Structure formats: C-alpha cells, structure tokens
Amino acid sequence: MPELKVFTRAEVAKHNTEDDCWIIIDGAVYNVSTFAQLHPGGSQILVELGGKDVTDDFYGLHRQEVLVKYAPRLKIGTIENEVAQVSIPVPGELSTVPYAEPSYWMGFKSPYFNESHTAFRKAIRAIYDEIRPDAILAEDQGTYPSKELYAKLGEAGVLASQLGPGDHLKGMKLPGGVRPEEFDYFHEMIAHQETSRLGAPGFTDGISSGYSIGLPPIFNFGSPALKARVVPEVLLGKKRICLAITEPYAGSDVARIRTTAKRTPDGKHFIINGVKKWITNGAFSDYFTVAATTEKGITVFFVERDENIETKQIKTSYSPSAGTAYITFENVKVPAENIIGKEGEGFKVIMFNFSHERVYICAAVTGASRAIVEDCFKWANQRKVFGKRLIDQPVIRNKLASMIAQLEAVENWLENITYQMCKMPYLEQSVKLAGPIGLLKYQVTRVSHNIADDACQIFGGRAITKTGMGRTVEAFQRTYKFGAILGGSEEIMADLGIRQAMKYFPQGAKL
Ligand code: HEM
C-alpha cells in the first residue's frame, strides 16, 4: 500500500489527464492513472472524471467490495479536514441497516438469546467475512472448497456447530468461545444463517451440505467404533462425507430406491450396486452414507470411496462448487459392520434426522433472504432514477414492506420452533414438531420466492447479471428453488403439516 498523504481538493483537481489521473471517493484520494487502462468499465469514463469527487458515481455502479479490494493498490491519501461518510464493515460486525439482522441483533428484546449467541454470531460472521472473496471467486470459477479450508473451518468449530447440540461436540472448540455444554439449537440456527449469508450459494453448499446431513445418521445410529473414527475426522475437516439417498427413480419418495446390497455367502460383507443422483458434495466426498435395499428392506451403509465408485458432476443451477454428483456403485464391497443402525431399519435412520434437516434449511433460507433484504434496502437508498432515489418511489417502499413483513413473520416462527427443540427431548420433537416444521419450511421457501421476485424488480437488469451490484440478487433468484425442493418439496411439506395435525384432530369437534 502506498504511503498515505493529506491533500486539498485543489491539489487533487490538478491531476486530471490520461497520464496523471486522481479521483476522490468519500474523502479519500485514489491514483487511477495506470488502473484506468485496466478498468472493467472503460478507461475514458475514469479519465473524464480525473481530479473530481466521484463518490456518487462510484456507489451508483460498484459494490463496496470493489473499493475494499482495490484500495490497497490505488489509495494514496485523504482530503484535508474531511472524514469518510461511508462505513466499511469490519469483519464480524453486524449490520445497522434496518431489518438486515434478526430483531434481537437490532436492539430488540428476546426471550431466546443471550451474550453467548451474540459472541457466536459475531465470531462465525468474522470467519465468513474473511473467506468471502475466495468464496465468490470459487463460486464463479466452479472450483471445490479446498481441503485446507475444510480443515480451517473444522479447527474453528464451524463444521461442528452446524449439527446441533450433542455428544459429538465434546472436546470441540467452538466459535465465540461457546462451551460445548452451553451450545443449543439457537447456536446451530445462527450457524446456518451465517453460512448462507456468504452470497455464494453453490460454494456454501460445498462447505456445509454434505456432512450436515451425511454425518447425523452415524452419530445417531452408528456403532461405537464407527462413531469414534468417523465423527472427529469429519468435524475437524480431515474427511468429507455426503448423504446418498436420492436416485433418478426416487426423490421425496424414498421407499422406491432401487440400489441393492447383497450379503456375501460368508455373511461378512455386502455388495452394493446402483446409482444415486443429486448428491451434494458427492463429487469430492471421501465417505458416503448410502441407502440400499437388502433382503430385509432399506438399510443404510457407511461406504468409503474406492475404485468401484464413480462420481460425476451434475450441472445444476448453481455453481459446481457444491460438488453435486451422479454416483455409480458397481459391486462395491462393504463390511457388514458398516451398517448404520439395523439391517432393514434404514427408513427409521433416514427419517430420524429429516425434521432437523428441514429446520436447518429454514435457517439457511432465512439467512440468505435477509442478506437480500439488506442489499435491496441499500440499493434503494443509493440508486437514483429520474432524479430521485429508488426509496423515494412508493412502489419500491411497498416492495420492501412486503419482503420485510414476510421475512419477520417466518423468522419469528423459526425462533419459536427452535425454542421448542431446545426444550423437548428428541422423540417428543419428532412427534410434535414434524408437522409445524413442514409448514414452516413450506412458508419459508414461499417467502423466499416472493423475496426473489421483488428483489429482481428492485434491481432491474442487475438482478440478471452475475457480476456487479446485483451479484447476490442474481445468485439468489437463480438458486432459491433449492430450498423449496431439497429436504422435502413444498407440496410434501404442506401436506405433511396438515396430515400430522389431523392425527390429533379431536373427533368430537364439530362446527
Ligand atoms: C477506485 C476507482 C474504481 C475502481 C477500483 C473501479 C473498478 C471497477 C470494477 C472492478 C468494475 C467491474 C465491477 C463488476 O462487474 O463487478 C467496474 C465497473 C464499472 N465502473 Fe468502475 N471503478 C472505479 C471507479 C469508477 C468511476 C469513478 C466510474 C465512473 C462513473 C466507474 C464506472 C464504471 C462502470 C460504468 C462500470 C461498468 C458497470 C456495469 O457493468 O454495470 N468506475 N469498475
């Protein structure tokens, strides 16, 4: 970074030629003489503004991250007696833009949260703020999250904190200094919300969606030996695991899977054959939690990658960074002790974590939706059209109102259900919460649909452009459907909610 000096506006005004071009952005001076030739928006546009204050022009066309990235190279000083008006967020800092954070973090009271949740949110956000530039690059280039990044997230306790409270946290270091015994479902909710705020949906699923659903069957039903080996390896980011259930023939209708597992004559092994589709992280996972049918029915196996397993990348709507795969198992030999739970009881193993997975999806989708609301609020405030800011148009205020009202409603329901999870033993949760969680997921993804729609109209052409001001909105509107389909489709969630309620419908109730 060049040594910073203090200039007057008159001094800067003299640097207004092609070879000697300085500009002022928010009280700071940038020497763009050399950069102008490389400027993605064109050189002439910059040279014409040489010597001037271009703050409004800059913020009308660039995200703040552009300035953060280029300042170390281009910033040469500040303007005498002027202080910056635009705040550059510090990693881990929470936003003060209205509705950019859940209400507790905007200064409202809550019966649910305490200082440990705040410390946790800030610590985990700081970690993601630091990796965001690399995440955006990887999302764009379609590269997988590196093993080093997994190890880093593992060491910091980020991976462990996406799986809820439980014995798997024993001895783990967690973000914000949270002790494993005080970790609850609210910490987990925060972890998923923060992950999805990254603004790089494929990459986000690349670092979170495989083990979040692939590991719970092991620590809920695996043998002690399997747990002792696999759980620490995965939580510390040394190995990667995914859940391989869905097939070209079976999605939400799990019972129709065709992958088979045949016991060998000596009874010691099973031979697995079949295909799996839409397996998030499958392309780079070391381990697979696989559902297959034995003579006793659906059974779940722990399978290690070998030469008889082929994983092919599927081109989905988001980045290949998620490693979404089509997997072929051809005569894959697995020891009988790798059965997770009991032979023939795989359906129970699969269903056991389903509600938990759905709440996690709700947290992730509310986190991503909130980041979009923040971007829309900022954009509406800084974008000028027909001589006015967008926010000065009633139609734009109405769209923001609609987005915020819907998001706040589902966030409050999510917090209420999370509270029930904190207070109920797991089996009571399964009985009482499966229906409400189904309805919540249905509503959360309906809201994300509406938010995507309104955000597109607010951002216009930028909402359909992968780079620049609307980058996050473009990614959101292209990928929000993942939440509406994965973990149980909207239709199935809505139906489950009502069918569960009917189980408790009082026979004597008449209109
Ligand atoms: C320090 C100063 C500046 C830097 C580092 C910079 C950098 C960039 C970068 C990286 C992009 C590509 C953005 C993206 O697609 O994500 C861009 C685009 C652009 N820049 Fe700049 N820029 C600067 C100043 C300015 C100024 C003063 C103007 C004048 C109005 C300007 C006009 C544009 C335009 C018109 C685009 C294309 C925007 C679009 O495609 O919608 N830039 N700039």
How would you describe what is shown here?
This protein has 18 helices and 14 strands. The mean pLDDT is 95. The protein starts with a strand and ends in an 8-residue tail after the last helix. Strand 2 and strand 3 (28-31) form a beta hairpin. The chain has 511 residues and is an alpha+beta fold. It is globular, with a radius of gyration of 26 Å. It is 46% helix and 14% strand. The protein has four domains: 5-79, Cytochrome b5-like heme/steroid binding domain (Flavocytochrome B2, Chain A, domain 1), CATH 3.10.120; 103-202, no CATH class; 241-350, Butyryl-CoA Dehydrogenase, subunit A, domain 2 (Beta Barrel); 353-503, Up-down Bundle (Butyryl-CoA Dehydrogenase, subunit A, domain 3), CATH 1.20.140.10. Strands 1-4-3-2 form a four-stranded mixed beta sheet. Protoporphyrin IX containing FE binds at residues 23, 30, 32, 39-41, 45-46, 49, 54, 57-58, 61-62, 66, 70, 74, 467-468. It comes from Parasitella parasitica. Pfam families: Acyl-CoA_dh_1 (PF00441), Acyl-CoA_dh_M (PF02770), Acyl-CoA_dh_N (PF02771), Cyt-b5 (PF00173). One of its GO terms (biological process) is fatty acid beta-oxidation using acyl-CoA dehydrogenase.
